[in-house]
Specification:
Layout: H1 14-67, H2 71-97, H3 103-106, H4 165-187
């Protein structure tokens, strides 16, 4: 089979020109896009500088605002802290302050020439005393009270020195005052 010569003739410029015309949009579009992005990008840098300046100005205002002291709140806080400190100090130092005095230390004891010594009978057990029993330990349930020993009468102490009338009178007066104070305390 033989090929027949073609009757059409091709254009000699069709090859390179066609390629250039076909490639032109592929090259031109990115160049146009870069030119537009450059305008937008340069505007973004300017806007970024403006935004940074605004942020710096806002931070300066916050710092100035934070340096102002609210004196009313400050005094309240100091008052609460002071009250808390006083409370802690009171609790910590109360045992050493002597604020709580017993009745014995608040009234001075009267000194007499012949003080009477009284013996106090030992207190008996409320339930009773333990008796020797043949039962095992812990099983004795006897609650009868034992006979209480009679307290012996107190003997006055012998006088070492003769006492003057003034000292005797002062001692009697102090004893009378003490008895009156005891009676008043008993009524309350």
């Amino acid at each position: 089979v033989s090929s027949a010569p073609s009757s059409k003739k091709s254009d000699p410029n069709a090859g390179p020109i066609g390629v250039l015309v076909g490639a032109a949009p592929l090259v031109a579009l990115p160049v146009i896009a870069l030119a537009g992005f450059r305008n937008v990008a340069s505007g973004t840098l300017e806007r970024r500088e403006v935004i940074e300046k605004k942020i710096i100005a806002a931070n300066v205002k916050k710092v100035k605002k934070n340096t102002e002291v609210d004196t009313a709140s400050l005094f309240k806080a100091v008052g609460f802290l002071g009250a808390a400190g006083v409370a802690v100090a009171t609790v910590a130092f109360a045992p050493f302050s002597g604020l709580i005095e017993s009745a014995e230390t608040s009234a001075p004891a009267a000194k007499t020439a012949n003080p009477e010594v009284t013996k106090v009978a030992p207190k008996s057990n409320v339930v009773g005393t333990v008796k020797a029993s043949k039962a095992p330990k812990g099983y004795d349930m006897d609650v009868s009270e034992p006979k209480a020993a009679k307290p012996k009468a107190a003997k006055p102490a012998p006088a070492d020195k003769p006492v003057s009338k003034k000292a005797k009178a002062a001692a009697e007066k102090a004893a009378a005052e003490q008895a009156a104070a005891d009676a008043a305390a008993a009524e309350k």
